[in-house]
Amino acid sequence: MLAGESKRSPGQLARWALRLQEYDVDVVFKSGRRHQYADCLSRNQLPKIEEEISEDIPFLNTITNCKEEQSKDPKVADIQEEMGRRRDSRKLKELNGILYRKNYDPLGKQWLLFIPKHLREGILKSLHDAPTAGHLGFAKTKDRIRRKLFLSGLYRSVLRYVSHCWECQKRKSPPQRPPGLLRPILPAEIPFAKIGIDLLGRFPLTTQGNRWIIVCTDYLSRFTVTKALKSGEAVEITKFLVEDVILKHGSPREIISDRGRSFLSNLVKEETTGFSPFFLVHGHDVDTSLDAILPFLPDESAHDYVQNLVTKAEETRQLAKIHLTKAQDKDKSRYDERHGTVSYKEGDLVWIFTPIPKNVSGLRTKTVEFYSSVAFVEYDVICVTKTWLCEVIDSRHLFDDRYLVYRKDRGSSSNSGRRGGGVLVAIKKCLSSRKLDVPGLDLEAIWISVK
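The line above is the sequence of RNA-directed DNA polymerase; the predicted structure tokens follow.
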């Protein structure tokens, strides 16, 4: 086909036709719609994958030469020389020049191989870090070793190794009390001087077109004002504050809002203050329909009633403040028993906790690296103008028992001083209990803003 039209064909088609003349083939047109499977000619050549040499091979070679490796340990040599004179000779056994220790656990072997000190790190790596080991916790790793081998100081060695495991730190929560102590909000001197406001919803649409409920609570009396809203936007919230709070109870001095989940309890307990919210705000208990039916017998004049009402209201408010402070101290003491303090200094190395997005489907949390970011406390807390230079991190998401690597790569110094804006911190920490031995030591620093 191409040969017959070679005079009118472009040069490229002509060259193709000349090359195809030596073959007895039929050129058939096939539309792109019919090309459902890619053939080998459309694939780029894959790069050659070089097989990595397993790091466990040298260790396996050394563990098989037990007699030679035990002779390198002075402690093992001393035990072999004093086999008959030691008190624990019945617990030891030497066979073919190899030292064994008796095992009293019925689930393990009867005689355990005595591991020299210089092979302890390799044993822990093989029974904890290997793909077949599974990075188990302290108790399971200790039991696995205890039933197979004998290591002097097994408890401390396993605890130290597992607590500093690189992969475990990135995927498991730290074995410590949650950081952060409770900081109660101090009550105000008068009702509605300090209020909390929050939005509840989104609820099913009502007959009047409302989907949200706004809640306003006084921090002294616990008196609550609520209202149904249609959209929960700023215009409706402002109208609620003016009409239902300020015009009825006065202008508040402080307004507290978390702009997130509701921090109000489902049941507001009056035992916190000792009085009902209505009594603390109005100075008397609420009158019900039964009170309106019962005969009223005044026992004092109107002037004396007003004076006593004002005095009683002020006394109850002060007493309620005392009760509220005691309740907060009790809650703080109970809360702080399960939490600890967290402080970060210059030179501290920490991990940064990265929460998993809720909208990610099919994600297996068992293999997720929760603590994937790293930073070193290299500078004191300073203020910066350009907040985009740093990533805002909650201080509760920093853990000082984690370690990682750092390389200074920012043009800032510890004498930068205050310049307004956010709070900029460079994080770094090095654990003194173990030498830092991690590949890839050229990571950049992560600058974070601690709230």
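Note on the example: The chain has three domains: 58-171, 194-334, 363-449. The mean pLDDT is 64.
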